[in-house]
Each structure stands twice: as C-alpha cells, then as structure tokens.
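Signal recognition particle subunit SRP72, Piaya cayana. Tokens?
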Amino acid sequence: TAAAAGGAGAAAALWSEVNRCGQNGDFARALKPLNKILQINKEDVTALQCKVVCLIQNGNFKEALSVINTHTKVLTNDVIAFEKAYCEYRLNRIENALKTIQSASQQTDKLKELYGQVLYRLERYDDCLAAYRDLIRNSQDEYEEERKTNLSAVVAAQSTWEKVMPEDLGLRESTYELCYNSACALIGQGKLNEAMKKLQKAEELCRQSLSEDSDVTEEDIEAELAIIHGQMAYIMQLQGRTEDALQLYNQIIKLKPTDIGLLAVIANNIITINKDQNVFDSKKKVKLTNAEGVEHKLSKKQLQAIEFNKALLAMYTNQADQCHKLSASLQSQSPEHLLPVLIQAAQLCREKQHAKAVALLQDFADQHPANAAEIKLTMAQLKIAQGSVTKACMILRSIEELQHKPGMVSALVTMYSHEEDIDSAIEVFTQAIQWYQQFQASQTREANPKSPVHLSLIREAVNFKLKHGRKKEAISDLEELWKQNPKDVHTLAQLISAYSLVDPEKAKVLSKHLPSSDTMSLKVDVDALENSHGATYVRKKAGKLTGDNQQKEQGQGDVKKKKKKKKGKLPKNYDPKVTPDPERWLPMRERSYYRGRKKGKKKDQVGKGTQGSTTAGSSELDASRTASSPPTSPRPGSAAAVSATSNVIPPRHQKPAGAPATKKKQQQKKKKGAKGGW
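Tokens:
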C-alpha cells in the first residue's frame, strides 16, 4: 500500500507538471511527464490523448497518428476521431480523413469545421457550401468571420472551376480576404474590370489591416500582398496586357514568397506568355512548378494546366521523346480531353509524320464522337497543309453538326472552287438549304417562313451558279423563291437580271411586275447626301457673284480652263541652226558612229605619281589577298571572316548592312592602302 501510495503521489506530481506545461503552451516539455505516466500505465486513455494533442501542437502529425493506430483498443474512433482526422488531413490523406469523420458516432462542431475543409480539398464544392452554411447558421462564437471567408472561397471556386453563376450571399466585404474571394468569383464570370477594382480595394484593406500592427514590416506586407498582385497580373494577362503582367509576375518572384502554390501558378503563367520564345527562361520557371508538395496546394485543373504546358514546352524545345511521354501520360489520365492528343499530333507534324498525326486524330474521333468536331477540323487543316484539299473537304463534310453553318458552307465552296469542282460546291449549297427548309418546317411559327440565313444561302447559291455558267439552275431557284413570296422586289430584280443574260424578252415581261418609280420614291435629303463623307460630287454652295466674276461665270459656262504648258529647257550648247542628232536618245555604245575607246593609254602611266603610291591594279599582285594565302589575324576592331555555319550573329545583335559607321570604317581602310599581315 505504501508503494501504491507513493506511485499515486508520483503520478499526481507528473500530472501537475503536465497541466503547468499546457497552461504555458510548452507542449514539447509536457511530453516528458506524459511518457513517465505511460510507463506507469500504458493504457491510460487521458495520458494518450494528451500525448497526441502535444504531438499535434508540435507538428509531429505522423508520430501522433502512429500513437493513435498503436492503441486502437483504448483510443477508439469515438474517443479521438477529431485528432485522427486532423492528422490525416495535415498529412494530405484527405480520403482517409473523410472516412474518419463520417465514421464518428457524434458530429461535434470541431468535426463539422474539419469536414468543410476536407470537402473543399476534395473539390466537392456543393457539399462544402452546404456544410459551411449549416455552421454559420448554428454557431455563435469569435470564428464567424473565418467561416464567412471560407464560404466566400467556396463560391469563388465554383465560379472559377465549375463556371457556376455565384449567388449573392450578402457578405459584407469588410476584410481583404472577403474582397479577394469576391474578385476571384468575378474573374470566373469574365468581369475582369470589376474584379480589378475589387483587388485594388483588397490591397488597400490589407495595407490598413497590417499597418496597425507595429511588429509588421513593409516586407511582411508585400509578402501578404503577393497573392493579390498575382491575381492582378492574371487579369492583365487575360486583357492582353502581357508586358505589364510579366513585369508584375517577376516582381512577385523576386520577393521569394513561401507559398509554393503561388510560385507554381506564376511560373506557369510566365511560361504561357513566353510560348515558343525565351525557352531558356521557361526552363528555369518550370522548376518552380515541380516543387515538393505543390500538388497539395493547387486544384486538379491547375495541376492539369501545368502538365499541359510542360508538354508544350518540351515540344518547343525539340524534346520529342519527352513531349510524347508527357502527352501520352496526360491522355491516359484524361482520355476524353482534347489537348493531349492535339499536342501529340502537333509533335508528329514537327517530325514530318503527317500521316501518323492524321491517323492518331482519326482514332480519337472514332473513340470520342462527342469531341469529334474539333478533332476533324484539325485533321482538315493538316490535309490542306499537305495539299489534299479534296480530302480536307470530305472530312469537313463529315461533321454533321457544322454542315449547315454559313462559315462551313463558305469554306467548302471556296475550297471546291479552288479545285474547280463546281458540282460539289453546288451540292454543299443544296444540302445547307435543305437543312434550313427541314428545320423551318419543324417550327410552328407561320410568320417569316424563311430565315435571313436561309435566304442569304439561296441568294449566294444563285450568284455562284450565275458566275459559273449554271444560269438555268439559278433561274429555276429564283423563280421558286419568287413564287413563294411575289412581293419580294429584291428576288424579282435578281430574276430579271438573270433572265437578261439568257432571255431578254422574258426579262422585259418580268420587269412589268416591278413597282413604279413613284411608289418606290424615298424621302432623301439631297443636301445631306451630297455633304456626306462618302460623296464623290459635292455641289458648290451658291455665293454672291459681283462684277467681272459674274460675267465670267455667265460667259464661260461649261468651257474648261486650259492649262498652260511649261516650255521645256534647252541644252546650254543648243544651236537652232544645227539639226539635232537623231540618235541622241540612244546610249553612246548603241549609236552608229561609236568606234569604242582607244587602247594603250595607261601603259605610259606606269611608274608615274608620288613616291610610294600604287596603282589600282596593285591589289591584284598582293599575295596576301589571294585565295590560296592563309588567313591573317583580324585587326583590332575589324570583323574576321567566318563560315556561315560556325558563328552566325543573332538577328537582334546584327547591325544594318548600310550603317554609316560601317561605311566610315571601310573608307578609312581604303585610305590606308592595301597591306599584308601585320
């Protein structure tokens, strides 16, 4: 009994020390007495719970989870569900955390808070929104502002990733976090200008909030503002202000923020700006996207976009194997996504394997009919690049949902016309017109029996037939169209114009159906028309004419003013008595009396001139200038002759061929005279 009493006293002293450490927040020191208590009684539930809490407070989540899993008989899920789920959450075992929470017999407020966080990480935004609404409705404590911030973050995520129109939650944007989340929601809706204003307000609120704390430095404020500035740069990039966006992105990177997720997103966005330019900078930036743990900081769509850009960067840097490997991996992860197969096809085209690229695209179109339209458009583009225009037309005509679109009809007709296949072009028109006829027949509206697109297609088809000599077919179409609507003056005029090419008498008969000029008279302001910007003739305003001006105006009438011809200048040695040479316009060599230059004059000039001077031909006798002599060292400041493939100067560093400085140097060299090596 004395030993038992001594043991109880020792345990009490240890618990007293644990309590004191807990009140002081010294959780590391509290572990020592707890371990001593557990040596006395290994199954002490309270000591085990306290040890788990101390380990969590110290950030030792793996060890805490190990303690829980080791003592499952004592630490049941009902006893320690929150601590276990929290450890799993912090260790990024999100699915396990969800199972732990759902298996708890009692859903406490702490578990509900953690449940909302887990749902957000799993991107189950609808369930997450409902969880936070329930928490805000049934909780009254000092954490209400944080819950509202989380709620606004869920709404922003829905708007950004699921393109859901966010509902107005009636949240007062009193903090910079709420303002930032509101801006993200606006970006998801495409309201970029409004989003920028919200971000500017968030920046202002952030500065005000942090400047109130005397311990916060300017560097701390800039670090906190980094995510706001990153979102501002993203808006600039979407607006096409890439230079401003790039400058702001680089400023954020120089701050070296600790948020690896933010750095990864900024690096990815810089890579998208660089595209196939500045690939060395892109290679440096891509390392930031590979930081450890970045996959737990970003959403699935963000991670997917980064992987797509890695594959494209591999293609731009001519890493064919790496590009194929990345795009194939992406396709296996997202079989229905278009981008991986398009990247693979683009890489094959860079390798001049167009047939393989087309086959790859065809296989994807067969397996995924829902996405076949975009794939087939790409296939058609490849066929056109190969010169197979007819095959490209066949591919385009196989896209049923686009056959009747005016753009598709126009493209097909143009391509068939280029191939001089007029019958196929007319067939395209006919199919499109029939589609609109069937579509309108299925409509219940009686008014406007033909849509503007339908009429436009018919008129274009008629013009095309007239242009290519199919006058009878064109006239037949116009007659049918006019019978359906005899009041259509435009169709009647087009019909008369067509008949005038084939049967002028018939055209005259039809012209009687045209309305009279009186009924067609329009109220036109002639003065306004003449003074309009596009008028070719402007009537002069009548002014007061007096005296001689009035007489000239009345007398001359329609007589045009004669322009005085200037007398041509005569040569200085012109003699009017001598007849001009009839061959004076011909070059001297082509004139009949040209005898050529006299030879032998320069022989007498050898050796003449000042001492040391050389003649023009001396350069031909200089051995240092012959092709067989070895190259000499380049002179200081001069350019050495190199082969075209060894050291080409990049275009941005090249000087223009006719730069004044270059000419000046050449002139100076000429003055020095021709010399050999130095």
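The domain at 420-513 is CATH 1.25.40 (Serine Threonine Protein Phosphatase 5, Tetratricopeptide repeat).
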